[in-house]
Amino acid sequence: MITGHIDHLAAAGLAQPLYDAIVQALAQDPAHKQPDSYTLDGDRLFMNVMTLTTQPPHEKKAELHRAYIDIQLLLEGVETIHYGTSERARELLEWHQEDDYQLCHAIDNPQTLTLEPGMFAIFMPGEPHKPGCHDTLRAPLKKVVIKLHREALFPVS
Q1: Per-residue model confidence as pLDDT tens digits over 49-62
Q2: Which residue in 58, 77, 88, 146 has the most C-beta neighbors within 10 A?
């Protein structure tokens, strides 16, 4: 997991494809878009703009992906993300290949990160994460999840 703020994007030390994906998504002004999926570069790069209400972490399942890197960028509200390193997902449910996700009931040795507007968290394939949480109250939030295909960082030979 990598975290940073869009106001200091150059200081985040991101690999060029990650940096470029965030810049390309921000150029589309996701804060003013309706919730939907938007193509940025075919199947290689797209973004999902969403609104939701935060939930207590015990009411949610964690997710992980295989093909896509998840760049979660908070636009409005405050959220806590519970996450773990690769291979820490427990009690896995069925794999949904077409939508590139798998849910799990638990994360071994979970960590937490609180995002405020402008902050982002990047999860590599295999890293379980439970976004949209809040430990004290349910609150609305708006975010964009930028999906960058793993081959942008890990080319297939």
Answers
A1: 999 999 999 999 99
A2: 146
